[in-house]
Amino acid sequence: MSSKTVTMKPQILLTNDDGVTSAGLWAAYEAMSSFADVTIIAPSSQQSAVGRSISIFEPIRASKIRINGVEAYSVGGKPTDSVIIGLYGFELKPDLVVSGINIGENLSFESIMTSGTIGAALEASNQGTPAIAFSLQVEDQGEKFDDPRYSGQNFDAAKKVVADVCLKLLDKGFPANTDVVNVNIPSEITGGYEITHLAEKLFHTGVERRLDPRGRPYYWINGPLYENAKEGTDVHAIHKRNISITPITLDSTAHMDMEAIRRIF
């Protein structure tokens, strides 16, 4: 009597910061659903730049919805809330958490500290589940502020990257000291994978002062993108049209300066 070996599909929790209706999120779902059981738990509305903030002063509602015939959970909170509710509220035990595909790149020190996409991945890793964040470059920065349901981005190449990266890391596992793998995909890929480190800056930060109709001042934080970044950084890789892969650690300790701090104190 022969017995068949049943191969279980990997379990993936998919979230983002652009909201549960984002075209980028559903592109990621399409990329992974052929080889994994994907559960979508994502914010109900746009949550870009909220970082790793968590809703601790108000209750969080998670509503089951259906989009394109697929069930998903719409969370009235932050990307980190979505991850925590998935892991502890729904008691999911995913093999991997994927955050994205974000509409807009998440590069450099400043982006990973403020990005809700990266924040969700960091939260997942801190809770014991390996995580990957995917972001797609936009040529027009204004697209980051358009309705993500109707993005004009072409996700075809990005979907292939999502599938390939996930399958490789599910097969080989994460390196021992990597908590999150941050993947940034150029809007047009002409190169291959490049393993990078974080650039210091993505934007030349500035503030624009304006006056309202009553003559009162208000301010916009803005600034153009950095055009020149050091070789080996994620920003430089994207400018070369390479796919940037940056290993990130949760430990923000400046280990190299421990002795210097001891001498001061």
Protein model, in words:
This protein is α/β, with parallel strands linked by helices and 265 residues long. The protein has one domain: Survival protein SurE-like phosphatase/nucleotidase (Stationary-phase Survival Protein Sure Homolog, Chain: A, 3-Layer(aba) Sandwich), CATH 3.40.1210.10. 26% of the residues lie in helices and 25% in strands. It contains seven helices and eleven strands. It has a nine-stranded mixed β-sheet, sandwiched between helices. It has a two-stranded antiparallel ribbon with strand order 9-10. A hairpin with a 5-residue loop joins strand 9 and strand 10. Helix 1 crosses helix 5, helix 2 runs parallel beside helix 4 and helix 3 packs across helix 4.
Short key terms for the protein model shown above:
single chain; Stationary-phase Survival Protein Sure Homolog, Chain: A; nine-stranded mixed beta sheet
Task: List the topology elements.
Blueprint: E1 11-15, H1 23-32, E2 37-43, E3 62-67, E4 70-75, H2 79-89, E5 96-103, H3 108-114, H4 116-126, E6 131-136, H5 156-172, E7 180-185, E8 193-195, E9 206-211, E10 217-222, H6 234-239, E11 243-248, H7 258-264
Parallel strand pairs: 1-2, 1-5, 2-4, 5-6, 6-7, 8-11
Antiparallel strand pairs: 3-4, 7-11, 9-10
Helix pairs in contact: 1-5, 2-4, 3-4
